[in-house]
Amino acid sequence: MSRHVIVTGASRGIGSAITEHFIELGDNVAALSRSGDAPSGCAASFAVDVADSSAVNDAVKAAVAEFGPVEVLVANAGITHDGLAMRMSDDQWREVLSVNLDGAFYTARAAMASMVRARLGSIIFISSVSPFIGNPGQTNYSAAKAGLVGLARSLAKEVASRSVTVNVVAPGLIDTDMTSSLGDASDALAAMIPLGHMGQPADIAGVVGFLASNLARYITGAVIPVDGGLAMGL
Ligand code: NAP
Questions:
Q1: In order of start, what are the domains of the chain with their CATH numbers?
Q2: Closest C-alpha to ligand 1, atom 44
């Protein structure tokens, strides 16, 4: 039976691979992104800035009206705006926190009501290994991605009695637009990965698909690194 799945940041990279994974399974995917672009086969797409809580509420409400209760939410939309802390502007700090952390909270809050009523659902936050290994130049991003772990674990306990699970996937270095600007630095980072190479968006999509499946129904509050061993011991 096809599920109602919402994916944020579905237009490109990891979000696009996650979306395609659910489409292949026959699910109804409502895709959210800034541009409104989405992989073909999506049931619906919305141009939404996840940092705008009322726009998120409107999009989720429209999706629920069309496809029924949300069964899977993947809060994946994210940005970086790197710089050393000493020179980081207020805007640079706030923008990264707003999209990566506030945006994830707004989408989870909007989707949760229908899950709790249906006593069924899976929320998956896409974090990063960055807060676990520490990345110079990414204090804003690491703080936001660490925040997702606290958000997920507290939320997991709030909704566990309603059979809603909440988990975190922490990707390592994945080959997307976000990492393409790294140039030679990405080779240096890849050399630190025990498996010896960057991951592909499909590597994340497979784990997200598992967490959203019945096979993972007894997993909640977990943080799962998908990183070729980069943050071993996370
Ligand atoms: P990406 O290729 O840069 O794609 C980012 C996606 O997020 C796009 O769909 C973009 O939409 C959307 N987005 C950005 N800001 C948004 C906003 N304000 N409102 C709605 N959508 C917004 O990035 P990616 O590498 O696939 O990363 C996906 C997630 O994985 C992010 O949370 C990222 O932090 C995390 N992650 C990535 C890596 C990596 O190595 N790539 C590692 C660890 C964690 P538009 O196309 O409309 O702009």
A1: 4-225 (3.40.50.720)
A2: 128
